[in-house]
Amino acid sequence: MKIFIDELASHKVEKLVICSLEQALYQAVVVIDGAEHLVWESQKRPVCSRNLMVMRESFEHLDIPQRVLRHESAYDEMVGLPSDTASNRMEVPLDQNPYPETRY
User: Fold this and answer.
1) 75 Cβ partners below 8 Å, 6+ apart?
2) H or E element: which one contains 58?
3) Please, which pLDDT band fits residue 86 given cuts at 50, 70 and 90?
4) pLDDT tens digit string along 4-15?
5) 52: helix, coil or strand?
6) Stretch 14-35: mean pLDDT, rounded?
7) pTM, 2 dp
8) Contact criterion met (CB below 8 Å) for 39 and 28
9) What is the pLDDT of residue 102?
10) How far apart, in whole angstroms, are the C-alpha atoms of residue 89 and residue 58?
11) Could you tell me which residues are beta bridge partners of residue 66?
12) How far is CA 56 from CA 53, 77, 87, in A?
């Protein structure tokens, strides 16, 4: 099932996952009813950005309780580690507001 970014407000999104792919390339995935779905901006193009802040701004208006930045390295086998024994997935929690509040 394709989930389009302009239809996300009508779904109960449990979690937003911004996947960090190769060198500053980010892709959005949402968790709905326990299943992960890639977020699409059009029929042929998933939501993608080379700027993390732009990606976060795209989802700022939505009420999503959990937001994380996910990174998985495909290079374990290059440094002599087995590639299939355990996941090396790392998720870093993100705040809903992409910008820190100014405090004066």
Assistant:
1) none
2) helix 52-58
3) low
4) 999 999 999 999
5) helix
6) 94
7) 0.83
8) yes
9) 59
10) 24
11) 15
12) 5, 32, 25
What is the C-alpha to C-alpha distance for residues 16 and 70, in angstroms, rounded to an integer?
Answer: 10
Cα-Cα end-to-end distance for the chain: 47
Phi, psi angles (nearest 5°) of residue 35: -110, 140
Strand partners, 44: none
Per-residue pLDDT at 84 exceeds 70: no
Which amino acid would we find at residue 84?
Answer: D
Closest CA to 18 of 87, 62, 66, 76: 66
What pLDDT score was predicted for residue 95? 83
Distances (CA, A) of 17 to 6, 22, 67, 82, 103: 17, 16, 6, 26, 29
Identity of residue 64? I
Count CA atoms within 13 Å of residue 82 on its CB side: 4
Read off the pLDDT band of 47 (50, 70, 90): very high
